[in-house]
Specification:
Elements: E1 3-6, H1 26-38, E2 44-48, E3 54-60, E4 68-69, E5 73-81, H2 90-104, E6 109-115, H3 125-130, E7 134-139, E8 143-149, E9 158-159, E10 172-176, H4 182-196, E11 201-205, H5 209-212, E12 222-226, E13 229-232, H6 238-249
Parallel strand pairs: 5-6, 10-11
Antiparallel strand pairs: 1-2, 2-3, 3-5, 4-9, 6-8, 7-8, 10-12, 12-13
Helix pairs in contact: 4-6
Length: about 250
């Protein structure tokens, strides 16, 4: 498999792997717009020369949309290989691309957001631990910050979560970005369902790395709170959202 680096110049021509291929679809349009704005921050998007989920996306940690202190590191936004492409070593190939690029750019290591067990929308901890990543920090309820230092003297990254800024809020609060294309489709769904059920709802679209450092959750892509308590990071389909809202109504 050949690896393609997506840039401003070829972004419109390339399939970005994790959403449908029609550039006019809101999911694709929002993701590509987000990518285009991040390239100047040093974001790198590499993919296999296939139409499917086989890609890695990473960015200097100082510019990452996550509340971490990891100066000098490269942060992996997403590494996703699935379907027919699994089991061929492509995840390792893409991670090697990131590692070699990070070393060439003088970074002191790589950092990634994961979890205490394998969960949807979060990097697989077993894969990264197999690749010699180790635990740097933890955040409730299950988030883990894993890192691979290139130098034993490299400073350990850590979360820098804001204090519980939602603790006084009532109802639903959703923090999200357009880093994942699925939010463009599914955030309006939960907004409508909450409105139909007369549940208090507030959505906060994070639109900068600076703002991402002010939120009370490591997973800025999509984190849902109820009465100030974290509920889920999973980007909810309509059916899952309906089930969740039913349980919240009776709490």
């Amino acid at each position: 498999m050949n690896i393609i680096t997506v840039t401003k110049e070829n972004l419109d021509l390339e399939h970005i792997c994790c959403a449908i291929s029609n550039n006019n679809d809101i999911q694709v349009a929002s993701k590509k717009s987000w990518l285009a704005a991040r390239f100047d921050d040093g974001l790198v998007f590499k993919k296999g020369d296939v139409r499917g989920k086989c890609f890695i996306e990473y960015i200097p940690a100082e510019k990452a949309w996550i509340p971490i202190d990891a100066a000098g590191y490269m942060y992996i936004d997403c590494l996703w290989v699935s379907g027919q492409f699994k089991g061929h070593g492509y995840s390792s190939l893409l991670l090697d691309e990131c590692t070699n690029d990070s070393k060439a750019k003088g970074k002191q290591g790589i950092v990634v957001l994961s979890s205490s067990r394998k969960m949807s929308f979060l990097s697989d901890p077993s894969f990264f631990r197999h690749k010699s990543f180790v635990l740097a920090d933890v955040a409730k309820p299950y988030f883990e910050l894993l890192y691979l230092p290139f130098d034993k003297k490299a400073e350990k990254p850590k979360f820098c979560l804001a204090e519980s800024v939602v603790s006084e809020s009532r109802g639903l609060e959703l923090y999200y970005t357009h880093q994942c294309p699925f939010t463009a489709k599914y955030v309006p769904i939960i907004e409508k369902l909450a409105r139909d059920k007369n549940l208090p709802f507030r959505s906060i679209l994070i639109d900068s790395a600076e703002q991402a450092h002010t939120v009370p959750t490591p997973f800025t892509t999509y984190s849902l709170f109820w009465n100030g308590t974290f509920v889920t990071h999973e980007i909810l389909s309509e059916n899952k959202c309906i089930k969740l809202l039913k349980t919240l109504e009776y709490e």
